[in-house]
Amino acid sequence: MPSVFFKTRGESMELPLEPIKRIIKEQTEMRVSQEATVELQTAIETNAEKISQLAEKFADAGGRKTILGSDVVKAVEAIGIGK
Q1: What is the pTM of this model?
Q2: Cβ(55)–Cβ(75) under 8 Å?
Q3: 36 touches 24 (CB < 8 A)
Q4: CATH H superfamily, domain 17-79
Q5: pLDDT value for 14
């Protein structure tokens, strides 16, 4: 059974909402709406897709068929998401 955190091309990805809601709640003392949770879910999924595609390009450029952690780090930096 595939993990909910990974998808194959063309397959819909849905990260579970509860961990996302928990992340928001841990950063604020406010209540969190379902809409806010879904919006963050969408943003995370969109960025994960962009990062994955860019990391694949870095792996290809390196002559590899395996995406390494360093490829992901470079992709994250390239799209401007900091740690």
Answers
A1: 0.75
A2: yes
A3: yes
A4: Histone, subunit A (1.10.20.10)
A5: 83
- Write down the mean pLDDT value for the chain: 86
Q: How far apart are CA 22 and CA 61, in angstroms?
A: 37
**Considering only CA atoms, which of 1, 37, 31 is closest in space to residue 17?**
37
Domains of the chain, by residue range, sit at 17-79
What is the distance between the alpha carbons of residues 79 and 69, in angstroms, rounded to a whole number? Answer: 16
In sequence order, what are the residues at sequence separation of 6 or more whose Cβ sits closer than 8 angstroms to the Cβ of residue 20?
37, 40, 41, 44
Do 49 and 10 form a contact (C-beta atoms < 8 A)?
A: no
pLDDT digits (tens, 9 = 90+) for 3-32: 344 444 445 568 999 999 999 999 999 999
